[in-house]
Amino acid sequence: MKKLIIINGPNLNLLGKREPEIYGSLTFEDYFKEIKGKYPEVSLEYYQSNVEGELINKLHEVGFSYDGVVLNAGAYTHTSIGIGDAIKGIETPVVEVHISNTFGREEFRHQSYISPNAKGVILGFGLQSYELAIGSFM
């Protein structure tokens, strides 16, 4: 059984409440229940933090024993050299995910410190971006 973890960064705990025109009206906890049901053959975990160091610690914790990480680092994508370095330093492949098409938004969102070290990048497909990332590990 594959062991995967979804790691969400800052403000993604507000899904379902925050800017529903961009992010939709479903909470991530409800969505996570749905995708767990769609992938019963996968051991799937979820972690969320608004704190950069906690995200780095989680990547270090799972980065040598899991089969894959689905990472939506939120705004840290565009600012955190530390998260990019953490991904570079672990063995577990990471797929970078974004709910919105970051290239269709503000210019500062066009830069990612994660992409150069990620297995791949999926963006702009709403919450389905997570499922596409999970599928890449199958």
From TrEMBL:
Catalysed conversion reaction: 3-dehydroquinate = 3-dehydroshikimate + H2O
- Its top-level enzyme class, in one word, is lyase
Query: At what residues does the UniProt record annotate the site feature described as Transition state stabilizer?
Result: R18
What InterPro entries does the entry give? DHquinase_II, DHquinase_II_CS, DHquinase_II_sf
Give the Enzyme Commission number.
Answer: 4.2.1.10
KW Oxidoreductase (keyword) present: no
Give UniProt keywords alphabetically: Amino-acid biosynthesis, Aromatic amino acid biosynthesis, Lyase
Q: Where does substrate bind?
A: N72, H78, D85, I99, S100, R109
Q: In which pathway does it act?
A: Metabolic intermediate biosynthesis; chorismate biosynthesis; chorismate from D-erythrose 4-phosphate and phosphoenolpyruvate: step 3/7
The record's GO molecular-function terms, alphabetically, read: 3-dehydroquinate dehydratase activity
* Biological process (GO), any one: amino acid biosynthetic process
Pfam families, per the entry: DHquinase_II
Q: Where is the active site?
A: Y23 (proton acceptor), H98 (proton donor)
Q: How does it assemble?
A: Homododecamer.
Q: What does this protein do?
A: Catalyzes a trans-dehydration via an enolate intermediate.
What's the family? Belongs to the type-II 3-dehydroquinase family.
Protein name as it appears in the record? 3-dehydroquinate dehydratase
